[in-house]
Write a structure and sequence with these properties.
The complex is a heterodimer of chains A (about 290) and B (about 500). By secondary structure, chain A is an alpha/beta fold. Chain A is built from 10 helices and 10 strands. Helices cover about 40% and strands about 20% of the residues of chain A. Classes of the chains: A alpha/beta (about 290), B alpha/beta (about 500). Chains A and B meet through strand 4, helix 9 and strand 10 of A and helix 9, strand 18 and strand 19 of B.
C-alpha cells in the first residue's frame, strides 16, 4: 500500500507591482482554523510595504487611466473568467476560513458576478455621469469623469473575498490604481485573488494587496501624501475620525463604507463615481 | 515683434477722460445687523466692524460681528425653516422662489455692481458684466432644478441634507454667495452663509432681495464676521453640510474639524494654474488670454493662470508682446468704466502680494512691472511678471492671489505637461494651440478640474467648477453641482 501523499502547502505572500514578495519586514502572523491549527503564516505587512505599494500604484496609474474603457472592461471580465476557473479552490479556502460550504459557494459565485457587473460598467459610467453643458457664451463645454488616481482601500474584515472585490472592482473599472489591506481575520482569499489578478492581464501595480494588521497600517493608508483617496470599511468612530483627520493633510477624498452587506444590493455605478473627478473643458466655437 | 512703429497704443496719444459710474442711486446703510429668520437683527455679540473701500480706505459701513450665540440663532432659524415651510414646500414652488431671487437681482443689477466694486475693489466693468449677471444666472439655472432632481441621479432618489453652513471668500463676493445658496435651496436645504469680512455688503444686499422675494423666514440666514464666526458654523452640531471656498490651508483645517462627524462637505480651495502656450498658437490671442488669466480681478482668482509656460521658440515674442500689452492696462479707480485692474482687496492681501514680490526677486527671478502710476490712497499692485524662475521657486509653487505671473519656457509637450502637473494643486489650466488634437491631448493630460482651450477664466452656471488634488473636493455649478447638496437613497 502506497504511503499517503503529503500535500504541498501554499506560501501566502503579498502582491506589489505585479510581484509576490514577502513583507520586507520579515514578520508574520499565523492564520489558524477553527480548531486552532495553523493554516498559513501570513505576511504581517509593514508601513514600508505600503509605501512600496503606493510607488507601484503611482507608476501604474497613468497607463491604466489611459487604457481604453473597452480594454479595462475586458480585463475585468478576464478576472471573472479566471476566478470561475478556480471556483473550487476559492470555495475550499472560504470553508477553511470558517464558512459553510453553502455560504462559501454563494460568496464565490457572487464575487464572479460582481466582476462581470463592473466589467460591463467600464465603458458606460462615463456616459451616464458626463454632460455637455449649455453655456451661454460661444463655447463647446463638456464635463467628463476621470479617475482620482491612487486609492488606498481598507477592505472589510467580515467579507474576505466578496467585500474585497466589491471595493476593488469599481475602483479599477474607473481607471484608478489601488493598494488594499485585506481582511485581517479572513486573509487567505485576498492573496489567492492576487494570483487570479496576476493571470488576468491586469498590469502590475494596478492592484496591490497587503495582508497585516489594521491597527498598524490604517494610519499610513490615511496619511500617505501620494494617495488621492482612501476608502475605509467598518471603522469605529475613533478610527473614522483618525482616518478623516489624517486624510486632510493632502485633501484626500474620504469614502466610508460602513456595515455594507456585500452579499446584498451593494453594486451600483455610484461606487465607481466615488473615486472619480469631474473635469470640465471649454473650447471656443469660431472660424 | 513689437517695434516703436507697431507698438500697441490704445490711446493713440489721447488721454482717457474719467468715466466714473455714478453712485447716487445706491443705498448703503450706515450699519447692518445679521440677517436671521427673515429680519435684520442686532448681534448678540453687540459688536460691529468696519467695511472699507480698498480703493480709498474710506469706511462704507459697519457690519455685525456674529459670535457663537448669533450663529446658534441662525442655525436654529434655518433648522426651523427646514422642518417647517421650506421642507414641506412642493419642489416646484421652491423653484419659483429661487426664480424670484434671480429676477430681483437682475432688476437691481447696477446697484449690486456698484456696491461690489466699492466694497471689494474690482473694476465696475467686471462686476457689471461678469459677477452680477453670472450670480443672477446661477439662481435662474438652479431654480429650474428644484422639481427635476429625479432626473439628475439615475436610479437614485435625491433627498435634501438639512442645514447647510456656507463660508465664502472675498474675491467674488456676490457670485460665490449665489454659487452656494442657489443649489442648496434648489435641493431643499436651508442656509446659514457667512460672507468674507472684507466684502460683506453685497451678501447683505442679497439678504434684502431674498426678503423682498418673500422666502419663508429662516430659509436663508446671513451672518457676518471673521474666522471665529466661520469656525462656529463649521463646528455647529446642527449643521448637516459645510461648503467652503477659500485657501487650501483653511480648507485643510475645516476637513480636519469635520473628521468624525457625519457632515457632508465641499471645498473649493487654492490653485496655481498652468497656462500653456505652444508655438503654433495664435500669439496675439494667447497674449490676451494670458492677460485675462492673471490680471482679471487683480489676480484674486483661485483658478488664475498664474504659471505661464511658453514654448521656447516663441517665448521672446510672447513675453515682449505681453509686456507691451501690460503697458496699456489701466490700473485705478474701480468705479471708472475704463479701469482694467482695480484695487487689491485689503491691506493684508497687499502685504502678502508684496512679500511674494520680494521673495521672487530674492530667489533670483527677474521682475517686470508695467510703468503705470497708481493712486496714492488705497491698495494697489501694478501688473507684474517674473521671468527666470525655476520649478522650485516659491512664486511658481505657492498661490499668491494677486496680479503676479511666473513665466517658464519649455521645448517639448512632455516637458510642459510634467511641469504643469507638478503642483499639489489641480484646479484649472489653459492650453493655447491651433492644433485640435493637441488641445484634446493636453486638456486630457492636465490634472485639473477645469481646462480652458484657447480661452481662460470663463464661467457659466451650467458648467461644473472644482479641483483635483489639494484644490478641493466636490464640484459647484451644473448638474454635478447638485450632488453637493443631496443625499442619495434607493428609489
Amino acid at each position: 500500500m502506497a504511503s499517503k501523499r503529503i500535500a504541498v502547502a501554499k506560501t501566502y505572500k503579498i502582491y506589489i507591482g505585479g510581484k509576490f514578495p514577502r513583507t520586507e519586514s520579515g514578520r508574520y502572523f499565523a492564520h489558524k482554523d477553527k480548531k486552532g491549527n495553523v493554516v498559513a503564516n501570513m505576511c504581517r505587512g509593514s508601513r514600508k510595504d505600503f509605501r512600496n505599494a503606493v510607488v507601484a500604484a503611482r507608476n501604474a496609474e497613468a497607463g491604466w487611466a489611459r487604457a481604453s474603457a473597452y480594454l479595462r472592461g475586458q480585463i475585468l471580465y478576464r478576472i471573472a473568467e479566471m476566478l470561475e476557473g478556480r471556483r473550487e479552490q476559492f470555495i475550499a479556502e472560504l470553508v477553511l476560513q470558517g464558512a459553510t460550504q453553502k455560504a462559501a459557494e454563494k460568496e464565490v459565485d457572487q464575487s464572479i458576478d460582481r466582476l462581470i457587473y463592473y466589467a460591463g460598467w467600464a465603458d458606460k459610467y462615463q456616459q451616464v455621469f458626463s454632460a455637455v453643458n449649455p453655456v451661454s457664451s460661444s463655447h463647446f463645454n463638456f464635463s467628463v469623469l476621470e479617475p482620482t488616481g491612487v486609492v488606498s482601500i481598507l477592505a472589510p474584515d467580515n467579507s474576505g473575498l466578496l467585500g474585497l472585490i466589491g471595493n476593488v472592482a469599481p475602483v479599477i473599472a474607473g481607471g484608478n490604481t489601488c493598494v488594499v489591506l485585506a481582511s485581517e481575520s479572513k486573509p487567505l482569499s485576498a492573496v489567492s485573488f492576487a494570483e487570479v489578478l496576476h493571470a488576468s492581464d491586469v498590469p502590475g501595480g494596478v492592484v496591490n494587496i497587503l495582508t497585516g494588521f489594521r491597527s498598524e497600517l490604517t494610519e499610513q493608508f490615511a496619511s500617505h501624501m501620494d494617495v488621492n483617496a482612501v476608502i475605509y470599511c467598518d471603522g469605529s468612530k475613533a478610527v473614522a475620525k483618525s482616518v478623516q483627520t489624517l486624510a486632510a493633510d493632502n485633501i484626500k477624498r474620504v469614502i466610508a463604507r460602513d456595515r455594507v452587506d456585500w452579499s446584498g444590493d451593494a453594486e451600483n455605478p455610484y461606487l465607481i463615481r466615488d473615486t472619480q473627478e469631474v473635469k470640465t473643458t471649454w473650447h471656443p466655437i469660431g472660424s | 515683434m513689437a517695434t516703436p512703429e507697431n507698438k500697441l497704443a490704445f490711446d493713440g496719444g489721447w488721454a482717457y477722460d474719467p468715466a466714473p459710474e455714478s453712485t447716487d442711486h445706491i443705498r448703503i446703510e450706515s450699519r447692518y445687523g445679521l440677517f436671521i429668520n427673515g429680519d435684520f437683527v442686532k448681534p448678540e455679540s453687540g459688536k460691529y466692524f468696519d467695511t472699507i473701500n480698498p480703493a480709498n480706505e474710506e469706511k462704507l459701513s459697519r457690519v455685525a460681528d456674529a459670535n457663537q450665540a448669533d450663529v446658534d440663532k441662525a442655525v436654529a432659524a434655518a433648522r426651523a425653516a427646514y422642518r417647517g415651510p421650506w421642507g414641506r414646500m412642493k419642489p416646484a414652488e421652491r423653484g419659483k422662489y429661487i426664480y424670484r431671487i434671480a429676477r430681483i437681482m437682475q432688476e437691481r443689477a447696477r446697484e449690486f455692481s456698484v456696491i461690489e466694486s466699492l466694497d471689494g475693489g474690482k473694476p465696475i466693468r467686471e462686476s457689471r458684466d461678469v459677477d452680477v449677471p453670472l450670480a443672477a444666472a446661477h439662481f435662474f439655472y438652479y431654480a429650474g432644478w428644484a422639481d427635476k432632481l429625479d432626473y439628475a441621479f439615475p436610479g437614485r432618489k435625491a433627498k435634501p441634507l438639512g442645514v447647510a453652513g456656507q463660508i465664502i471668500p472675498w474675491n467674488f463676493p456676490l457670485l460665490m454667495a449665489a454659487w452656494k445658496i442657489a443649489p442648496a435651496l434648489a435641493c431643499g436645504n436651508t442656509v446659514v452663509l457667512k460672507p468674507a469680512e472684507t466684502t460683506p455688503l453685497t451678501a447683505l444686499k442679497l439678504a434684502e432681495a431674498i426678503a423682498d422675494a418673500g422666502l419663508p423666514p429662516g430659509v436663508v440666514n446671513i451672518v457676518t464676521g471673521a474666522g471665529a464666526t466661520g469656525a462656529a458654523i463649521v463646528e455647529h452640531p446642527d449643521v448637516d453640510k459645510v461648503a467652503f471656498t477659500g485657501s487650501t490651508n483653511v480648507g485643510r483645517m475645516i476637513q480636519k474639524k469635520l473628521a468624525g462627524t457625519n457632515k457632508k462637505y465641499t471645498l473649493e480651495l487654492g490653485g496655481k494654474a498652468a497656462n500653456i502656450v505652444f508655438a503654433d498658437a495664435a500669439i496675439d490671442q494667447a497674449v490676451e488670454g494670458i492677460v485675462n488669466g492673471i490680471f482679471f480681478n487683480q489676480g484674486h482668482v483661485c483658478c488664475a493662470g498664474s504659471r505661464l509656460f511658453v514654448q521656447e521658440s516663441v517665448a521672446d515674442e510672447v513675453i515682449a508682446k505681453l509686456k507691451d500689452r501690460m503697458e496699456t492696462l489701466i490700473v485705478g479707480d474701480p468705479l471708472d468704466k475704463n479701469t482694467d485692474i482695480g484695487a487689491i482687496n485689503s491691506s493684508m492681501q497687499l502685504k502678502k502680494i508684496q512679500s511674494y514680490l520680494k521673495i521672487g526677486q530674492s530667489e533670483g527671478a527677474t521682475m517686470h512691472q508695467s510703468s503705470c502710476s497708481v493712486p496714492k490712497k488705497g491698495y494697489w499692485c501694478r501688473p507684474t511678471i517674473f521671468t527666470g524662475v525655476s520649478q522650485s521657486s516659491r512664486v511658481v509653487q505657492e498661490e499668491i492671489f494677486g496680479p503676479v505671473l511666473a513665466i517658464q519656457t519649455f521645448r517639448r509637450y512632455d516637458e510642459a505637461l510634467v511641469k504643469a502637473n507638478n503642483t499639489p494643486y489641480g484646479l484649472s489650466g489653459g492650453v493655447w494651440t491651433d492644433k485640435g488634437s493637441k488641445i484634446f491631448k493636453m486638456t486630457q493630460d492636465l490634472r485639473a478640474g477645469v481646462v480652458w482651450a484657447n480661452t481662460f477664466n470663463k464661467f457659466d452656471p451650467t458648467s461644473p467648477f472644482g479641483g483635483y488634488k489639494e484644490s478641493g473636493v466636490g464640484r459647484e455649478g451644473g448638474l454635478h453641482g447638485l450632488d453637493a447638496y443631496v443625499k442619495l437613497g434607493a428609489r
